[in-house]
């Protein structure tokens, strides 16, 4: 749940859990359309990898010392 993750990681941002969920769906659906159009599943896999890294950056929490 994105809202729970935002609370857990104390994210205060100009975007919302709903907007991130919509962005995630847009990326995933677009990736599948492109992969199908080009006949290459690797395109979808690469898009999912980029999305995962993006979300990790949004929720990155520096290690505490």
Question: How does this model look, in words?
Answer:
- It is a single chain.
- With 65 residues, the chain is mostly helical.
- The chain has one domain (2-58).
- The chain is 72% helix and 0% strand.
- It is built from three helices and no strands.
- It has helices at residues 2-8, 17-38, 41-58.
- Helix 2 (17-38) runs antiparallel to helix 3.
- The longest helix is centred in the middle third of the chain and has 22 residues, at 17-38.
- The chain starts with a helix and ends in a 7-residue tail after the last helix.
Characteristics of this structure?
single chain; 65 residues; mainly alpha; 3 helices
Total helical elements: 3
Beta strand %? under 5%
How far is it from the N-terminal to the C-terminal residue, by CA? Answer: 28 Å
Query: How many domains would you count in the coordinates?
Result: 1
Which residues sit in consecutive blocks of at least 5 with pLDDT less than 50?
A: none
Q: What value does the Rg take, in angstroms?
A: 14 Å
Given the C-alpha coordinates, what overall shape results?
elongated
Percentage of residues assigned to helices: over 70%
Specify the biggest β-sheet: none
By helix and strand content, what is the structural category? mainly alpha
Short description:
With 65 residues, the chain is mostly helical. The chain has helices at residues 2-8, 17-38, 41-58.
């Amino acid at each position: 749940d994105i809202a729970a993750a935002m609370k857990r990681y104390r994210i205060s941002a100009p975007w919302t859990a709903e907007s991130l969920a919509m962005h995630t769906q847009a990326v995933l659906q677009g990736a599948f359309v492109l992969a199908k159009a080009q006949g290459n599943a690797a395109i979808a896999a690469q898009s999912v990898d980029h999305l995962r890294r993006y979300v990790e950056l949004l929720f990155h929490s520096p290690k505490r010392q």
